[in-house]
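Journal club prep, shared notes

We agreed each person brings one worked example of a sequence with its structure written out as tokens. Mine is Carbonic anhydrase. I'm keeping it raw so we can talk through how to read the token line rather than staring at a rendered picture. Sequence first:
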Amino acid sequence: MQSLVEHARTFTEHVAANAKDFERFADGQTPEALFVTCSDSRVVPSLITGARPGQLFELRTAGNIVPPYPGRDRPTGEAATIEYALCVLQVRDIIVCGHSHCGAVGAILRGDDLSAMPAVRHWLERSTDGRTPPDDAGDLPGAVQAHALAQLDTLRGYPAVRERLAEGSLGLHAWYYEVHTGSVSVHRPERGTEFARL
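Then the structure, token by token:
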């Protein structure tokens, strides 16, 4: 914790040295993409993409799960973030990025007993939406990639996403990041469910 505190304490010096870059943030933000990824501490969107402050609007959840659109009577923070990104910030792309060694998808695959963590259990159950895990329960990379594609399907159920897709003003992308190599693979829709390295 102390190293984080020390960096925060001296961060204003960095900002002062790069004043012009930071002064423009007072006028608002215009991110290029909404980056949906796992809360896992090993996954750092700006490190993976090289994004500078202001380029990515981020949504991080356990297992990079996008819950179904809740409607007006049961709003969620995830739904609010997605709507804001599309309707106010007008992002042009949404990236759902899964990652290797994902504990959430691994727990789904293995059928782990999560009774001691009811919130986690419920969150993961919502993500599977009654779907069964792949036949090969040992294929975690394949399961994570399929999971990212399933989140894109869930996103297509959001009214704002549907509208922007119909206009042709939004791109949806599924990525897979290897935490131990830094390699990024992307889904190629023309190849079915196949992911290919960038």
